[in-house]
Amino acid sequence: MDTAPASDRPDDQRQHHRPPYDEVQASPEFGELRTAHRSFAFPLTIAFVSWYLLYVLLSNYAGGFMGTKLVGNINVALVFGLAQFLTTFLIAWWYSRHAAAKLDPRAEAIKARLGDSS
Amino acid sequence: MSNYLLAAESASDNRPLIITLFSVFVVATLAITVWAGRQTKDANDFYAGGRQFSGFQNGLAISGDYMSAASFLGIAGAIALSGYDGFLYSIGFLVAWLVALLLVAEPLRNSGRYTMGDVLAYRMRQRPVRTAAGVSTIVVSIFYLLAQMAGAGVLVSLLLGITSEAGKILIVVLVGVVMMLYVTIGGMKGTTWVQMVKAVLLIAGTLLITFLVLLKFNFNVSDLLGEAAKNSGMGSAFLEPGLKYGVNATSKLDFLSLGIALVLGTAGLPHILIRFYTVPTAQAARKSVNWAIGIIGGFYLMTIALGFGAAALLDHDAIIASNKSGNTAAPLLAEEIGGGADSTGGAILLAVISAVAFATILAVVAGLTLASSSSFAHDLYANVIRKGQATQQEEIRAARWATVGIGTVAVVLGVFARDLNVAGLVALAFAVAASANLPTILYSLFWKRFTTQGALWSIYGGLISSVFLVLFSPVVSGKPTSMFPDVDFHWFPLENPGLISIPLGFLLGWLGTIVSKEEPDKGKYAELEVRSLTGHGAH
User: Fold this and answer.
1) Cβ atoms within 10 A of the Cβ of B104, count?
2) Using one digit for the tens of pLDDT, what is the confidence trace for B203-221?
3) Which of B61, B280, B354, B523 is most solvent-facing, going by the fewest CB within 10 Å?
4) B72 and B363 Cβ atoms separated by less than 8 Å
5) How many CB atoms lie within 10 A of CB B386?
6) Which pLDDT value is given to residue B89?
7) CA B155 – CA B354 distance, rounded (Å)
8) Is B240 in contact with A75 (CB distance < 8 Å)?
């Protein structure tokens, strides 16, 4: 360590006694919280990035398919693009629901046990 | 329709009205800034706006920070000229927010304090990583800022019908001075309020024009698209991907590269990341991203109507005659839809949309200047130069001086770059952010083994490779559209370096870690992981 981390700076009001982060990190409760976040966020990130790349690749290399007209002047490309908007809104909503149900209560419980110093 | 001469002539007719609206916006926002400045007492206020904004307020401010003139005028113009390909841009810009929502916003809010460097350097040796984070923040922000400043000069001159060089320089200087006032006086509080006001104006203006365009087509989108395709002279190809990026194999690869940079860049943009510190909790940070996704998504949907509306209702050559990238398509559309060049309605709508564009530029440049001066003061000055011994007042003073310094640099570069084509710089800023910042943020938060050497290799490797590739790309030389069209030293075929530099940034972070001899600091990782997921000890 070259210098003290920012949180231990003199102007800081927090207590200098360090909470037992290592024990908390190793605890089953924290393991559950970590899993609840990672098992949701990581696969979903891979999924929406792949879905977006599929769209980019189709736009690039499947012009004929994307140009297929569906209704009037509305073609596959436009529907595909709008679907990206729709999935973005849905994923944001889905994640927030998941976070409120599975992440926030677990995080709160651990924070309370540690003694909220903020 | 006498669209041909419209831009320059009608702009000068409407000049008094446009200048009045510009002035009203500047005076009103400066008043807000002074009010916010009175409430700015400590570093928490200056850097993080006191952390008391609500999720909705911050969502608005994020939208105001993110929707630059490039997205308002640029995307509408790109759709007006190249049809569907213009729309492709906005999708990457939107989907990118999911990376911020799922992986970055909440842990950052929980474990950081004022800057991106707080999180990057958390478990690492402070001085080298802070230095790297500061350098990367300033480089990304200056690229972005330069594009906005040069754009401001061109755009405002165009809207006001100013043709003299002195006039354009004056505009760039004026934008620079106002932005420095916002940031030095109002800090994060002032900047946040300016961004909120701008977001409301931008949404209201866009909503109005969108409504009027759709009304003209009886809310039949298919008719609107059909008319746009017909009027563009390109037929149904105008509604399909390929007009702009599908020219040849290189341009297709370039689009892929751009797409990756856009979707991964947002969550690494320092001026966006520091906005998460302005709310009290991780839940509020989550809420603000949700609001931002809703607002920005809605806005991009409206740019479709704007862009295709311009293509349908304006003369294609008139759009190009006014600005060859189509940047004035939206204001011209506003004039047309208000009743045409000689009508009062047209004059008023043109003035309103021009003022909105001006507000957009000011709010974005203020956010960028704040991000870079905060990083200078907090990362470089307080933690590297003064080794954590600076008082809050000294830090704020350093941040204010840094604002003046960075603002001056931006003005000077903006004046020199006013005739250069700097449109590529925003996409470049996204590529640098995705290559240099995002890998380090993700590894820091989620990878136990990550070390200082990994962080440094990733930040500097991503930064240097992306800047280096752009230097030798057609953005800088070798093409009529290059920054320097008269010389040619390019050998890298793509305009956007992301396809190479982003995987390289991730790879170097991994490689630097596995070959480093130092052991990762397990205790610090435990602290970061617990704090980032639970919000314990959050500032």
Assistant:
1) 25
2) 999 999 999 999 999 999 9
3) B523
4) no
5) 15
6) 84
7) 9
8) yes
Whether domain B6-534 has CATH 1.20.1730.10: yes
Find how far residue B225's CA is from the centre of its chain. Answer: 29
User: Scanning every residue of chain A, which has its alpha carbon at the shortest distance from the alpha carbon of B392?
Assistant: A11
Residue range B466-477: mean pLDDT, rounded:
91
**Per-residue pLDDT tens digits for B375-432:** 999 999 999 999 989 999 999 999 999 999 999 999 998 888 776 766 677 888 999 9
Q: Name the residue in chain B with its Cα closest to that of A30.
A: B530
Distances B206 to B42, B306, B311, B341 between C-alpha atoms, Å: 37, 8, 16, 19
Q: Which residues contact A26 (CB under 8 A, 6 or more apart)?
A: none
Give the tokens for residue B485.
């069209």
Q: CA-CA distance, B396 to B374, in Å (whole number)?
A: 9
Helix axis angle, B392-416 relative to B165-216, nearest 10°?
Answer: 90
Cα separation, A49 vs B436, whole angstroms: 19
Mean pLDDT of chain B: 91
- Rounded to an integer, what distance in angstroms lies between the CA atom of residue B224 and that of residue B213? 9
Partner residue facing A92 (CB), from B101, B226, B530 = B101
E-assigned strand segments in B194-302: none
pLDDT at residue B3 above 70?
no
Lowest mean pLDDT among A39-48, B146-155, B323-332, B488-497: B146-155
Integer angstrom CA distances of residue A28 from A38, A100, B447: 15, 20, 19
User: Are residues B202 and B356 in contact, defined by beta-carbon separation less than 8 angstroms?
Assistant: yes
Q: How many residues does chain B have?
A: 539
- For A72, the enclosing helix (H) or strand (E) is none
In this structure, what token pair is assigned to residue A13?
A: 């009001």
Among A36-45, B13-22, B342-351, B460-469, the range scoring the smallest mean pLDDT is B13-22
pLDDT band at A99 (very low <50, low <70, confident <90, very high): very high
Of B245, B260, B530, the CB nearest to A25: B530
Domain borders along chain B are 6-534
Cα–Cα distance between B130 and B531 in angstroms, integer? 20
Q: Which one of A58, A88, A110 would you mutate to disrupt binding with B, by most B Cβ within 10 Å of its Cβ? A: A88
Handedness of CA B175, B176, B179, B181 (dihedral sign): negative
- Checking if the pLDDT of B46 tops 90, the result is yes
Which pLDDT does position A4 carry in this prediction? 42
User: Which residue in the set A45, A73, A81 is minimally distant from B226, CB to CB?
Assistant: A73
**SS3 assignment, position B391:** coil
Cβ contact A99–B286 (<8 Å): yes
- Could you say which DSSP state residue B342 is in? T
Mark yes or no for CB contact A41/B236 under 8 Å: no
Instruction: Name the average pLDDT for chain A.
Output: 87
Q: Do B146 and B415 touch, CB atoms closer than 8 A?
A: no
Partnered with residue A74 across adjacent β-strands are A71
Q: Is the overall model pTM greater than 0.90, yes or no?
A: yes
Using DSSP's 3-state secondary structure scheme, residue B363 falls into helix
Average pLDDT over residues B72-87: 89
Flag whether pLDDT at A15 surpasses 90: no
Asked if residue B4 has pLDDT above 50, the reply is no
Distance CA B392, CA B389 (A): 10
B534 → chain A, closest CA residue: A107
Q: Give residue B161's pLDDT band: very low, low, confident or very high (50, 70, 90).
A: confident
Q: How many residues does chain A have?
A: 118
Cα A90 to Cα A84: distance, rounded to the nearest angstrom: 10
pLDDT of residue B148: 86
